Amino acid sequence: MPNEKERTRIDKIKSHGFMSNEKLDYQDLLLLLQHDNEFRELITQVVHSSANALVENAVVPKAENVVEKVVEVEKIVEVEKVVEIEVEKIVNKTIELQDPIRSELKVQLDALSWLTQQPELMQCLNLKPNLTQGQMLLAWCAFASNAQNIIMLWEWFSEQCSADKRAVTTEELHFLELTLQQHNANYQQHKVTLLAVTEGTSFDFEIHKRIITAQGSAVEQCCLAGLLDTGGKILCKPLVKTY
What we know:
Elements: H1 4-16, H2 26-35, H3 37-57, H4 66-97, H5 100-104, H6 106-115, H7 119-124, H8 133-144, H9 147-164, H10 170-186, E1 192-195, E2 209-210, E3 219-224, E4 226-229, E5 234-236, E6 239-242
Parallel strand pairs: 2-6
Antiparallel strand pairs: 1-4, 3-6, 4-5
Helix pairs in contact: 2-4, 3-4, 6-10, 9-10
């Protein structure tokens, strides 16, 4: 949706009519392409008119049979389709160029799209399903600012892994990493990092957390990397399976 300034400019342009003598600059054309259906329809009509003129004025060479004539007409129609596709690409590219912030935050917004499909995790983050992406992003940033919240998020993932006796999923780990990234961007002196354990490491109760029912004295798999603060203190022990 256009903002108030853009809406005012569109109304001013349309009040004079698209065919008036008022000069439109490049930004005006982009604005109309993005937000004004009437202007887009006008562009489409121009494309259609040009294509129809091509059909009417086309000099079709004498063909040996009807099939060759049909092929010539189909080629002209195909040109019209290509032009329409190019117009659509211009409109889409215009929208993309005018929304650079969305492009820069694509990774975070994709993660939020995944998050909306995880109702229990949404509840853990105290996020309501009726929030817009912008509101969710702000709430997520606020959540990540508190180190205790990050520990709570880690414990939530740990409970899921322990209950299902599995490792963290790619999506879960990615979301945890992005949350840490947001926290660390604001707290350079108090960063929280992931603490992984390599396979074959001797299990140590002091620094490792074993999935319930797992037995053995060596790490078989690091199911969820732990959390470590800048002082080297383990905030959450790595969750492991042993053999």
